[in-house]
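Hey, quick one: can you model this chain's 3D structure?
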Amino acid sequence: MTETCRVHLVVNPFSARGRTAERWKTIREAVRQYYREFKYVFTERPLQATEIVRELLRDGFDLIIGVGGDGTLNEIANGFFAENQHCAINGDASLGMIPSGTGSDFIRGLKIPRDLRASLQRIKTALPRRIDAGRIEYLGADAPAPRYFVNVADFGIGAEVVRRLTNVPVRKPGRWTYYSGLLSTIRNYSSPCIRIETDEGVRLEGRFLIGAVANGSVFGGGMIIAPDARADDGCFDLVLVDDMKPLAIIRRSLSLYTGTIQKRPEVRVLRARSIEVHTNNETVGLEFDGEPGGTLPARFECLPACLNIRL
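Sure thing. Here's the predicted structure for all 311 residues.
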């Protein structure tokens, strides 16, 4: 990447429980060692990064570098797409990420170092590569605008855990935060009845504890939900976990951290480019890239090679 490239950082100062703001001076000085000229902006509210990135791309910036976690990455990735349109604003622009969040699961799944200087070195020297993204279309009467995700979208207990964690002060980092949220959720959780149809003609109906639409492999602060998922293969891995009792969930949870979840008899994996999910009049929430939002019914579509990343 030449020095003529226009570089802009989008910083979430609230990520990593506010530690990103505390270490911003260190981050800024490190960036200066790789890019003589760059600009930056701090976000102040949820979803603002999406609005900022759309304007930056229209203003001709070539490289947008996020500073934050999976939620920040999600907002920035959404900004690469024109609002309410099925197209990228600038197909040649690239996205980089300096990990500074409690989870950073997408980065973890790509086995990218979380070290500040190592991540900057990769952004500076790596060749841009195209990855897929997921698009969620809500099918309800009062459906919100479509949303995009780069890692994992989830309906079921994972979405309920994320919803609960947004209302609880975070005291411990990533993995323990999510797992403790899971333990507190399973006590009163009832798996919803779900109907699923894929573009491959698969039709399923049942009570599923987890329904993960995976573009990446890791979610939930280090849980390897889809060990074979690849972000550049043009399709999702849909991971479905059958309903089970709380004690069985606890016993099976270790396999989420060892990458052996797919070996369990109550787990099935489907490959699909598009997926429609409906409920039997139950309210079932969604989460995508660790952020809660929207409810079923919804359609998930894989958009092949639609994002340039430098990671």
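One thing worth noting: The chain is about 25% helix and 30% strand.
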